[in-house]
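Any chance you could type out some protein's one-letter sequence along with its backbone structure tokens so I can compare the two?
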Amino acid sequence: MIQVKDLTKDFGPRRAIDHLNFTVNKGDVVGFLGPNGAGKSTTMKIITGFMAPSSGQASVAGFDVFESPIEVKKRIGYLPETPPVYGDMYVRDYLEYVAALKGVSKDKIKSFVKNSIEKTNLGDVQTRLIHHLSKGFKQRVGIAQAIVSDPEVLILDEPTVGLDPKQVAEIRDLIKALKGQHTIILSTHVLPEVQATCEKIIIINNGKIVAQDSIHSLAMMEKGQRRLQIRTRKDVLDMISILSSIPQILSVKEGSNQKEWEISLQGGDDVIEAISACLVAKGLGLLEFTPTKLDLEDVFIKLTYGQATKENLKNGVEI
């Protein structure tokens, strides 16, 4: 459905995206995940035809984005980070206007607008000025304009940015309801958003794809790794030296004070037992010792924030 090959975009001397390659199949719900400034919005703008790449190709349903832009736009509904709504228009009038712009035939505009209003639960505000709506409802209007032409592909760029928790939950439920009706790319830097709505993930960092797979497969990338939350009665000035005899330790991070520490390790119960024995032998007064397994959030942080040097080990970097 969507194919991206060697896609690159430069802004002067700065390279925003660097030879991206990925495929989104029909019906997929894909999370395009990365920290702020990773290149997500730039990629979305190129796929939707709002921006030209420096090199590479992008196609939708077999049509090249720049050789056949009209055919591509017929098949895409796009919600940019800032919803493209007109505050001085009424909701229904605005959606009818957008439907006409998108080439929906006159005899179908009323039914298409009605359908988009029902899907986004805008019935109670359809006769109100957009300017008078809350930010959450404006986001809904933005999604409604994206789906008003019943496109094959939906591209949503940071659809919950700036919303309160209730509004975030409502938008996530709306995206879930659209599954199966459209191929969806959800661009975000919020991991729970991807976990709540998507089946596959593409992780981008510094303009490059660092991982792409199903959520389950990515969550298993660090299988076998664990984290320990440790709290002692006495201050620990040099936890690294205390645990230096255990090679399976990956990182040591100081908490809010020298009594609280977070240890990342590779291994099983024998390694955890060895750490406990070291701490007890030093007479530090072990008050808390809580092991947990690493999850998708840990994988994301590792892939996007990278590795530092040994000198910064106390800040939680890898050995």
About this structure: The radius of gyration is 24 Å. Residues 106-119 form the longest helix (14 residues). Residues 307-319 have pLDDT under 50 and may be disordered.
